[in-house]
Input
Amino acid sequence: MGIEEAITANYHTHTYRCKHATGDVIDYAAKACEKNLKILGITDHSPFPDRRWSEARMDMDDLDEYDQAIITARKAYPDLKILKSMECDWAEDYKNFYTEEFKDKRNYDYLVGSLHFFRYKGEWIFAFSPEARGKIREYADAMIKMIESDIFDFIAHPDLFALSTLKWDKDAVKASMEICEAAKEFKIPLEINGYGFRRPLVETCEGKRYPYPVDAFWEIASDYGIKVISSSDAHTPNDIIKSMDLCNDLAKKKNLSFAKLEFMK
Output
């Protein structure tokens, strides 16, 4: 599938339940129809039974209400295809939880893998923090394990490590190549994430740039023939298609093709 001019779908959105977004499913559905979307994926940050990182994700007690909010929005907007999903932070010990809770029990349409935290010498490092700098190897290793788990339908912002990589050196190139090689082997699309276009620019050795998406990463993705998904990563209904034109432009510039998975039909 080639690059589409019109934006007809967004597969990455968040509701107020994650504690750092606004709006509920019905609000996103209303905006999606206003912007002539045909498909809307709701992908709030998944909870953990042990409440890990609970300050930036929903709680387990929110799950039934979350599912019901999607049912309610589907009834209110029958012409809009609303998909039920979760953005799941990778923690290897919760692989079974993701499968059993979301795929088997709740019958979610798809799951998004993401990496906001990774382990370094036994400690969890937040990828947005200064402590993440210089730890690209550990980030890439965690990303590859997430891809190899083969339980996710696409990987969100795979170049998020660029946020703390202020010099695009041989380590950044190697990490990018290994991530793309794993994605190619497991046939998992990578997401060009529009939220990075809306964040403040970062100062690097090569000058100011967006924290992500990063041209150099997607140039490598093109070499591997990676399929992509363009998303706004909306944290407010008004951002339902925000920056997706820039994502599409980047895909076109790098000669990348969009994925076409079963849940997208």
Observations:
- Residues 1-5 have pLDDT under 50 and may be disordered.
